[in-house]
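task queued by scheduler; priority normal; single chain, no ligands, no partner chains; default sampling; output format set to structure tokens
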Amino acid sequence: MAAATVKFDRLLIHTYLDRAVAEFNTNPLSARLIRRIANELPDLFVAAALPYLDTSDQSSAHHFLTSQMLRQECVFDEVADPARGSLARSLNLFRRLWRADRSFDVQLVQRLPDRTGDNHWTAFDSARSCRVLDVLNETSTGRRLVPIVGHLVESPDKALAAKATLFVGRRMQSPKWAARQITRLNPEEVRANAVESLWGVKSQSAQELLEGCATDESVPVAGNALVGLHMLGKPGIIEQVMEMVTAEAPEMRTTAAWTMGRIGDAAFIDPLTGLLRDDSPEVRREALRSLLQLNKPETAAMPEPPPEPPAPTPAPPFVAERDDVRLDGSVNSTRSDRLRR
């Protein structure tokens, strides 16, 4: 019986919210109803409002929903938790929330493990922290967040340290800083991301560092260096990668397959196809991944138009029309009631 009540409540809240959004610019009760749902039934509000915020719609109703969502503590998990959706969804939701509150990025990053360890019992776990850094790496400009994130470069969590290295390195744009991360006894992922942080840095020291890393024994480190040199316009990189396809060492062929996918040149389709028959399973795996990357369509096929929705059932009167009734069904005492007591 209780489960049926919860289901009914969820459907009813969706009905109210749909109507409030549809009539937001014409019905003065709409904003009032949305606020009441957010305040009195926050869990149901979040579930009903998120589909609106996952779109790119910028209507006044969507802006108001965003302002109410920012009041919910769970909004940080909606951005950070990979189990709740793709990186693209996290990015879209983050951008919407950040446009409404320019301090949202700072509030989000403060939920990462801090420098002193004071918040480690409540901080995001590794998966959420990595998603936050992915989001901020795509959206944050300048060095404003570097002092808050910088210590994570030395995190014992390899995945987190690698994400932090890429975030900090892209904002430092310093070959000297990147060289320290590359030459230290860091995990492969950290060293590779230190190299990637130099992509697009047009300086002699950056190019020299990339050239030195192009022969590294690590596939991601060497591959990122070759990609960086290609981005700098150094001649002969594509030819160098092509030569690596026939190298005797399987590590070299793996690096070649990995690098081809990152560079993304159509000239690599034939050699990658040949590497699918390589004796090494690592080479075949990287070749397949790179081919899938090269063959990704630039635009997805247009989906079939959805069927016509059934005629909507008229919604019950707005709950907001009665101030004495709460959304959970209880009745607020009026001033006259209290005086009579």
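post-processing summary
- Residues 249-294 form one domain.
- The chain has 19 helices and no strands.
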